[in-house]
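Hi team, as promised in this morning's meeting, here are the two structures we talked about. I've kept the exact order from the run log so nobody has to guess. The first one is mostly here for context; it's the second one we should focus on when we meet again. Sequence first, then the predicted structure tokens.
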Amino acid sequence: DLVSGIILYQAGKYDDCLKNLENLNDPEALFYCGQALIKLGKPVSATAKFKTIGDTHKDSTYAETAAYFVG
């Protein structure tokens, strides 16, 4: 779930964070997935998560930050 995934991210458990969040269609979950993927050295996969936020959650509070990461 979302809260557990964020806690795992903050604890530095990025693989576990992804397992908790990767199937959620929520802009916050997508954002933390992207951040975790960056920490794991997977920038292309991270960019795809950030792009999804911009494409499907344009009004989200995460959209502007996600657009920054996409470039």
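And here is the second protein, the one for discussion:
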Amino acid sequence: QIGSTTPLSLATNLQEDLDMDSLELVELGITLENEFDISLPDAEMRRCTTFDAIVQLVSRAEQEQEARSA
């Protein structure tokens, strides 16, 4: 939630700590896709429960993008 006072860390739970719903997770995925020029399947974004899971998903997508470009 914008304006949340919840401290953020890799272990922050997106749904429990920040009250994000599945639509907000998909919207976050779209923002990350645009920012990093990658593709993140909606189903995988909805399965992310923590910031760490998102970092891993983005990292994996970047590696896959680089492999396709090589």
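Starting points for discussion:
The chain has a mean pLDDT of 89.
The chain is about 55% helix and 0% strand.
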